[in-house]
Amino acid sequence: MRREEVLRDDGTWLGLSLDVRRPRRPGLCVFGAGQRLLVSQDSRPVLLAEVDEHLAGVDFWRTDDYRSCLPPLRADAGRALAGSPRRWAHRFAHHLAESPDSPLHEGRWLLTPESPLPRWRPDATSHAEYWSSMLVEGHPDGYIDWFVHSGSWEIFPLRPMPGPDDSRVKAYRKQVREGSLPPVLLWWVSGLDCHLILDGHARLAAAIAESVEPPVLRLDRITPRDDLAAGVHAAVDSYERELARFAALRAVHGPTVPDGAATAGPRLARSLHDLATKARPTWSWPLPGGEPEWRRIEREVTAGRAWPRL
Prior knowledge:
The chain is α+β, with helices and mostly antiparallel strands. 35% of the residues lie in helices and 24% in strands. The chain has helices spanning 75-80, 85-98, 127-133, 167-178, 201-209, 225-253, 261-277, 290-302, and strands at 2-7, 13-20, 28-33, 36-41, 44-51, 57-62, 107-112, 141-145, 154-156, 184-189, 194-199, 216-222, 285-286. A seven-stranded mixed beta sheet has the order 1-2-7-12-10-11-9. A six-stranded mixed beta sheet has the order 8-6-5-4-3-13, with helices on one face. Helix 4 (167-178) packs across helix 5. The longest helix is centred in the last third of the chain and has 29 residues, at 225-253.
């Protein structure tokens, strides 16, 4: 895996891009069967999901079989890397690449502290209230509401959230007060339109208990290598054609016509930035056996219990 620093226009750090050459299908994998999804980890069903007929949300059934793809984070590591999402991104990237149970597959990815989540918090709402409201509730079953939370991309715990008095949460609450809490690792899954917590359930619970904004690193699939090269070529070609158009106008109307760089240049910069950083839809693989296999897995993990269909 090749890592590359991604910078903003002003030169500040935006994130870490990961160029992954293998595997073709990851250990933590999204399978599709019509309007039904299965998230499995090393062949263990982790999450069953079914988009409702009105496309307003997703019914889900969560198992207790998810295992974090990161090893436990020690308190001394938290203190050593405190306040440095850049260093945490490199650490997380290493663990994600080494783990057979991570969602990384062939292509390009971005680990970034940039997230749309904090933008939605009203000024009058405390961090505890806001981040609690962003959690998808329900275990083992529940509903991801696309109508109420359209575009706000909720946070989906892959296991039940621990309470404020849980021993791990208590330890992390101390790190919150020290300013050394490690980031929560989120993975945006487009088929669910929400963020799955890959690692940091107890850390997020600690931040909520202390009513602070949790540090977050978000994992997105971004433009693949081949598409990136083609996109850069198209953006540069468009830039050059725009400058040529302005040059032709200047030849007819004189130097009062601008050369076009003031408009074409920023447009090119935005296009190149989006190509390098914009999230792409999550890959899913056809579920072998299709919907009948999904139904079989459903009966197995739910022990035949009927779960809500809204």
